[in-house]
Please model this.
Amino acid sequence: MFDLQDKIALVTGASGGIGAEIAKALHAQGATVVLHGTRAEKLESLKAELGERAFVVTANLADRDAVAGLIDAASTAAGGPISVLVNNAGISGVGLPPIEEASLASFQKVTAINLDSVFLGTQKAVLAMKDSGGSIINISSVMGIVGGAGPAYNASKGGVRLLTKSVAVHCGTMGYNIRVNSVHPGYIWTPLVENIFEHVGVDNLTED
Model:
């Protein structure tokens, strides 16, 4: 598939679900993987499963200063510059009130993790990679293309999609050897999706 020997990859939200599987796939292709998340026990379990070439960093993605320092923290942990960043971490916003009743704070709670942290991580990655090259992969969602998951989640994932396009155009224009792509999964049976099903039920999950 891909030869990722001597590459260091940072995966956010690697405690479980899609993030953990991404980390496993990158590691299987030879990358040194830095696992980020908030559930330390699960991260350490995955690190032990992967064995060599796996490291753990933690940061609260709602804290802008913590996000800004995440690339440096990952580089320090792995002992070298990051050449792959996977912005995977996100929250669903399940249980938020409908648009008529939603507060700005509840909206921003979702966008802080799903969009703001992706912007900050991408910004730092471009600065770190623009001379040496690299790859930035932003995990959006099919709900970044269609409606049906609530305004905060839809807006945040749609924002990731167009943020990615904008940064890709910029990197190409500037001649940076950085690939910038977004991925848009549908419903995958992860803990996040399981939690959504438990709250709203299968019949209420619609796509336009």
